[in-house]
Amino acid sequence: MRRISNHRTSGSVWALRAWLLIAGFAAVTGCASQSIPPQRSIYESGLNTVRLEGDPDSTANTHPSTLTPTEVGTLLRGVRVWEQRNVIHRLFVGQADRSRAFRDEEITRLAPALSKALAQASPAERIAFHLSHATEQGDEETTTGWLSVRGQILYLSLSEAHDRHGPGPDISKYDRQMPNVPERSAAFDAIFEPEEFLVTVRSAGQFFAPDQREELQIRYREALRSLPVFPVAEPGGRKLSPQP
User: DSSP secondary-structure letter at 23?
Assistant: First the structure.
């Protein structure tokens, strides 16, 4: 009788463990599926897009956030990028010149959509943007990145900055002779000016990934109090001339 009782007890323990394992797996799966919000389109015109997507880096963004198109445009105007050059390259031709990451016409197109996206974003979302246009040489020039706000810091990441490549509807670039091998974008550095409002620059990206990622962390409220205003019209409003 004692052996039968022990056998039944052992069977009950294993059944309980199996039930707990299944329940735990279901709970984890459910949480994982709920933690990634679906993408939401905010703006789309040709290959130019602004959308909300799940933020893999943070679920505690200060969203929704209120930034007017003019404030967004003023901040974008302070972002600078330049070509990465190795020591030998710099020795012969010097450091590359810095240029604005966002031209005036790009800011006019992008700022209202980013302002709207920030106002609709949840703490678990970030704003993704992609700008694309054809050049006179027939290439496609793209700028791609992400935007989010955490407290007093604005996080602006770039994976492409006026990157030129062959035209095509698929924005992820692949070598035409070897379609399964990604084509790496031209490497670049990024900064925010004036640099006194820049907390840090963080470079990220996987070794075999086709794109890099330059993340600027900006004390944006302090910057807005000091930077010259770049007026951007509200949607449907009167367009103003930018300050130099």
Answer: H
